[in-house]
Amino acid sequence: MTGDSELSRIGISLPKNLLDTFDDIINMRGYSSRSEGIRDAIRSYITYYQWMSDVKGERQGVITMVYDHEHRGLIQTLTEIQHEYMNVIQASLHSHVTHERCLEVILVRGDGGNLKAIAERLMAQKGVESVKLTTIPVKDRV
C-alpha cells in the first residue's frame, strides 16, 4: 500500500480554543471528520512549505504577521529580528486588532533566501500566531 491508502495514527495535544475553532471550520466546510480536515490542513502546509522552498533570486514581497502583543518579550524579539534584516525590509505597518492581538505588514525586497529566512525566524517565535510570505520575482517585463 502506498500514498493516501496507507494510514498511520497519531496523537496530538491542542489547546481547547484551537480545537474548537478548528471543529467550527471543518463543520462549515463540510468535512466528514476531524481526520479529513487535519489531512487537508497538513497537505496545505506541505504545499506552502514547498512553495516557500522555491523562493530564489531577487524578489519583492510582503510578510504578514499576527501576534500576541502581550506575550512577554515578543515585541523586543520581533524588533531585533527586523533590525537584523534592515537591508531587505523597506517598510512596515503595525495595526492593533484587539488589545492583545496585532497585525504587522512588512514590505521586503532582496534575495529570496533572505526573505524566506526572516519569515521563518518570525514564524518560530512563541506568541506569533501566523506568518505568511508572498513574493514575486523582480525582473523587467518583456
UniProtKB/TrEMBL annotation:
Q: Which residues form the Ribbon-helix-helix protein CopG domain?
A: 9-48
Cofactor binding note of this UniProt entry: Binds 1 nickel ion per subunit.
Q: Which UniProt keywords apply?
A: DNA-binding, Metal-binding, Nickel, Transcription, Transcription regulation
Where does the source fall among the domains of life? Archaea
Report the residue ranges that make up the Transcription factor NikR nickel binding C-terminal domain in this protein: 61-136
- Keyword Chloroplast attributed: no
Q: Which GO terms describe its molecular function?
A: DNA binding; DNA-binding transcription factor activity; nickel cation binding
Quote the InterPro entries the UniProt record gives: Acetolactate_synth/TF_NikR_C (IPR027271), ACT-like_dom_sf (IPR045865), Arc_rbn_hlx_hlx (IPR013321), CopG (IPR002145), CopG/NikR_regulator (IPR050192), Ni_resp_reg_NikR (IPR022988), Ribbon_hlx_hlx (IPR010985), TF_NikR_Ni-bd_C (IPR014864)
- Binding residues for Ni(2+), per the UniProt record? 83, 94, 96, 102
Q: Does the keyword Transcription apply?
A: yes
Check the record and name the Gene3D superfamilies matching this protein: ACT-like. Chain A, domain 2 (3.30.70.1150), Met repressor-like (1.10.1220.10)
Q: Which cofactor does it need?
A: Ni(2+)
The UniProt entry, under Pfam families, shows:
NikR_C (PF08753), RHH_1 (PF01402)
Its family remark reads: Belongs to the transcriptional regulatory CopG/NikR family.
Function in brief: Transcriptional regulator.
The protein depicted here goes by the name Putative nickel-responsive regulator
Q: Which species does this protein come from?
A: Methanocalculus taiwanensis
